[in-house]
Amino acid sequence: MKKIGNLNFLLLPFDKGEIPVLKDCSLRIPEGQLWMLLGPNGCGKSTILKAMAGLLRPNQGHMYVAGPRSFVFQNPDHQVVMPTVEVDVAFGLGRFNLPLDEVLTRVHNALEAVGMDEYAQRPIQILSGGQKQRVAIAGALAEASRVLLLDELTTFLDETDQMGVLNAVRKVVGGADPVTALWVTHRLEELDYADGAIYMENGRVVLSGTVEDVKQYIQKQQDQMHNNGGFR
Ligand SMILES: Nc1ncnc2c1ncn2[C@@H]1O[C@H](COP(=O)(O)OP(=O)(O)OP(=O)(O)O)[C@@H](O)[C@H]1O
């Protein structure tokens, strides 16, 4: 078993039904960093993320993730469901049986961390998609999650909202209390916010390294595709 900072796991061959989706996947993300996970449609990015979050159970192999973790969905309407911002962030704390003072402190700190404190009393339905994503991330932080698993958060967002979410994640990852994040994306411009990147193909991790390494790999793939008339 591998131990890697606060995000420790080893994912061995993993079948979904009869079809193996992830094959010998093992990746490493240093604690307190934001890494991006990229790859063609259907290569297994969301499956890895969901397995790490405990939303999917590998039916072969072993997996180990250290530290409390939270999954943030592509569509915030599937996650941010309470009437106001403050109540939504507090919602997940119900199961911890905390004193009210502590709930309020955690909610305030989490909203501040994602730049949404001044929206605490606002109704959820007036928020933009990116603001809702930041509320979802605040919910994870309030629950003291140390690992954020972020699945294509910006797909439905305009540029302003996209920047708001990227900056919020960057800020919490670089904060005093180390948070580690793995962010699935198709948007190459988002790579510039990352500390490192991983590229997957057909259920395998084919590259894990610097942002520059992954950019070069993608460029090479695109050049090859271009030279082959659009097909690989
Ligand atoms: N519930 C499921 N049952 C069976 N196969 C599934 C299931 N969910 C996904 N798959 C298959 O697993 C493979 C990986 O899917 P996954 O959603 O992880 O890919 P992805 O890289 O996140 O793709 P995208 O970029 O399109 O979101 C695909 O072949 C997909 O069809």
UniProtKB/TrEMBL annotation:
The name this protein carries in UniProt is ABC transporter domain-containing protein
Q: Where in this chain does the record put each ABC transporter domain?
A: 7-227
Task: Recite the lineage of the species.
Answer: Eukaryota, Viridiplantae, Streptophyta, Embryophyta, Bryophyta
What Pfam families has UniProt attached to this entry? ABC_tran (PF00005)
Organism source for this protein?
A: Sphagnum troendelagicum
Instruction: Please name the SMART domains in this protein's record.
Output: AAA
Which InterPro entries has this protein been placed in? Answer: AAA+_ATPase, ABC_transporter-like_ATP-bd, ABC_transporter-like_CS, ABC_transpr_CbiO/EcfA_su, Molybdenum_import_ModC, P-loop_NTPase
Q: Which CDD domains match?
A: ABC_cobalt_CbiO_domain1
Alphabetized UniProt keyword annotations? ATP-binding, Nucleotide-binding, Transport
